[in-house]
Amino acid sequence: MSPVVHTLVVGLFSYLALIVVVRLSGKRTLSKWNAFDFVVTISLGSTLSTAIVSTQVSLVQCIVAFVLIVALQFVITFSSVRSSGVKNLVKSQPTLLLERGRFLTETMRRERVVEAEIRAAIRENGIADVERVFAVVLETDGTFSVVPEAGDSNSALIGVAR
User: Fold this and answer.
1) Angle at 124 between CA 99 and CA 135, to 5 degrees
2) What is the pLDDT, as a whole number, of residue 90?
3) Are 89 and 132 in contact (CB under 8 A)?
4) Nearest residue to 129 via CA among 96, 101, 106, 102
5) pLDDT at 32
6) Residue 142 — left, alpha, or beta (φ > 0 → left; ψ -120 to 50 → alpha)?
7) Mind spelling out the 3-state secondary structure of the chain?
8) What is the pLDDT confidence band of residue 28, given thresholds at 50, 70 and 90?
9) Overall pTM > 0.70
10) Contact 22, 41 (CB under 8 A)
11) Rounded CA gap, 93 and 10, in Å?
């Protein structure tokens, strides 16, 4: 088989196989990215690209690699739900960046976040005054959560690093 025909045939079938494997693996595989999700996604993409351009890799090898990556992802996420050690290895902890209208500059520096990013997140939530914000949290996927006002217990902030 010529390299071009191999690319067309293996590319088509490996792409379809990837779609099937990802759909069967569930929503977690397609969730917002944290570092672990990023590694899984890049691994799947790299495997697909290798299968498409390399005549040394068979369609079966490609499908086995997809299944292996998704199976490992499943094992890790299954384990992280049951073990705090695995969870801490795989996922970072959300971090408080602003509390009661005050920027937590040391935390911001450690997380490599600047005031302008926090102000933008506050504006995106339709809030004009930083002082009216109870908290801004850097979530594990890199997004910002803005809590506009304090509640009675502030229970949404349980587990957020200060």
Assistant:
1) 10
2) 76
3) no
4) 101
5) 59
6) left
7) CCHHHHHHHHHHHHHHHHHHHHHHHCHHHHCCCCHHHHHHHHHHHHHHHHHHHCCCCCHHHHHHHHHHHHHHHHHHHHHHHHCHHHHHHHCCCCEEEEECCEECHHHHHHHCCCHHHHHHHHHHCCCCCHHHCCEEEECCCCCEEEECCCCCCCHHHCCCEC
8) low
9) no
10) no
11) 40
Position 129 confidence tier, pLDDT thresholds 50, 70, 90? very high
Alpha-carbon gap, residue 47 to 39, rounded angstroms: 12
CB 48 within 8 A of CB 18: yes
Structure tokens at 97: 């960046």
Q: Does 146 have pLDDT greater than 90? A: yes
- pLDDT category at 135 given cuts 50, 70, 90 is very high
